[in-house]
Backbone:
C-alpha cells in the first residue's frame, strides 16, 4: 500500500487541484493507497474540504485535524505516526511536489535498490532572489557543521519504505527538522532532480523571519559547532588578554609609562561585552531547546479525525 501524507494550512484554494491530480495519478498506478491529510489549524475552509473528501471515499481519504497551528513539522510527524502503507511519502498541498513524479519514484523503489527516493529542485525559479541566496548559504553552512547530510534544494517530498518511516517515528524529539532527520537516519537514497514548480493557488505560509527561525533551529538541532565556537572564542580572548596584561605590567614597571587611551579601552570593553552576550545567546538557544525537550509536551493535539487511535499521541 502507498500512503501519502499531506500537511495543509489554509489550503482551501489549492486543495481541489491537488486532490484531483493526485487521485488521477494514483488511479493510474493502480495499487492500494491511502491519503492522509493533516489540517494544521487552518482558519479557512480546509477542514470542510477534508471532511468532504472523507465522506466521498472513506476507504481512501483520511484526515487528522489539529486544535491549532502546530507547524508543518508537527503535521508531518502526525502523518508518519498514523499511516499504514509499505511506501510512504509527504507531499505539499500546493502541487509544488508534483504528483506526476510518483510513478517513477515508485518504480525506482520497487527495483529494490533504494530505501527512499527523494526529490530536489534544480532551480529556484519564481522565488525571490534574496530568499534563494539565504537558502543556499544555509545549506552550505549546515552541511559543513553537522553530520546530517542535507542536499541543497532538497524537498520534504520523498517516497520511503516502511523501515525508514518506523525509524522516523522512533525519533520523537520535540524540536523537529525533518530534512536533518531524513539524512541522519541514513538508508540508501536516490535523488531525483526536477525543475521548480510554482504553487497552483493560495500563498506561501513562510515569510523571511519564519524561515530564518527554521534555519537557526535546524542548525541548533543538528550541530554542536556554534557552542564549540563560543568556547574557543572565549578561550582565545582570555589567553590574548592575559598576554596584554603582562605587557602592560612590564611596561609600567620597567618604563613607568602612564596608561593612556581611554577610547580604545572602552571599545575593547564594549567589544568583549558584546561577544560575551553573543556567546550567551548561542548557549541560550541550546538551553531553550533542551528546556522544551524535557517538558515532554505532545507534538500536536488532535481536535477531530476519522483515523482510528489518531488521538493517542506517542
Ligand atoms: N504547512 C503546514 N503548516 C504550516 C505551514 C505550512 O502544514 O504552519 C503546509 C502547507 O499547507 C503546504 C506545505 O506545508 O502544504 C508547504 O507550505 P508552503 O507551500 O507555504 O511552503 P513553500 O512551498 O512556500 O516553502
Ligand atoms: Mg509550497
Residues:
Amino acid at each position: 500500500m502507498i500512503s501519502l501524507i499531506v500537511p495543509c494550512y489554509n489550503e482551501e484554494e489549492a486543495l481541489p487541484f491537488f486532490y484531483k491530480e493526485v487521485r488521477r495519478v494514483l488511479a493510474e498506478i493502480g495499487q492500494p493507497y491511502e491519503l492522509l491529510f493533516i489540517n494544521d489549524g487552518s482558519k479557512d475552509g480546509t477542514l470542510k474540504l477534508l471532511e468532504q473528501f472523507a465522506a466521498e471515499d472513506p476507504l481512501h481519504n483520511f484526515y487528522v485535524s489539529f486544535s491549532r497551528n502546530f507547524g508543518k513539522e508537527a503535521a508531518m510527524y502526525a502523518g508518519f505516526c498514523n499511516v499504514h502503507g509499505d511506501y510512504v511519502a509527504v507531499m505539499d498541498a500546493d502541487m509544488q511536489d508534483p504528483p506526476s513524479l510518483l510513478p517513477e519514484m515508485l518504480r525506482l523503489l520497487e527495483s529494490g535498490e533504494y530505501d527512499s527516493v527523494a526529490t530536489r529542485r534544480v532551480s529556484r525559479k519564481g522565488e525571490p532572489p534574496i530568499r534563494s541566496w539565504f537558502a543556499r548559504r544555509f545549506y552550505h553552512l549546515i552541511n559543513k557543521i553537522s553530520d546530517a547530510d542535507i542536499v541543497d534544494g532538497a524537498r520534504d517530498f520523498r517516497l520511503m519504505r516502511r523501515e525508514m518511516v518506523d525509524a522516523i517515528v522512533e525519533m520523537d524529539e520535540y524540536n523537529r527538522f525533518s530534512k536533518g532527520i531524513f539524512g541522519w537516519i541514513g538508508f540508501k537514497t536516490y535523488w531525483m532532480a526536477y525543475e521548480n514548480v510554482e504553487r497552483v493557488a493560495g500563498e506561501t505560509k513562510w515569510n523571511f523571519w519564519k524561515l530564518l527561525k527554521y534555519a537557526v533551529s535546524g542548525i541548533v538541532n543538528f550541530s554542536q559547532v556554534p557552542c564549540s565556537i563560543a568556547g574557543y572564542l572565549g578561550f582565545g580572548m582570555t589567553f590574548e588578554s592575559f598576554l596584554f596584561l603582562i605587557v602592560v605590567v612590564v611596561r609600567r614597571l620597567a618604563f613607568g609609562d602612564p596608561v593612556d587611551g581611554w577610547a580604545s579601552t572602552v571599545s575593547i570593553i564594549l567589544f568583549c561585552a558584546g561577544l560575551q552576550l553573543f556567546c550567551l545567546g548561542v548557549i541560550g538557544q541550546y538551553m531553550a531547546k533542551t528546556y522544551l525537550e524535557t517538558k515532554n509536551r505532545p507534538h500536536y493535539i488532535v481536535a477531530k479525525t476519522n483515523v482510528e487511535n489518531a488521538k493517542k499521541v506517542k
The pocket of uridine-5'-diphosphate (ligand 1) is lined by residues 7-9, 11, 40, 69, 71-72, 75, 92-94, 96, 199, 204-206 (CB under 6 Å).
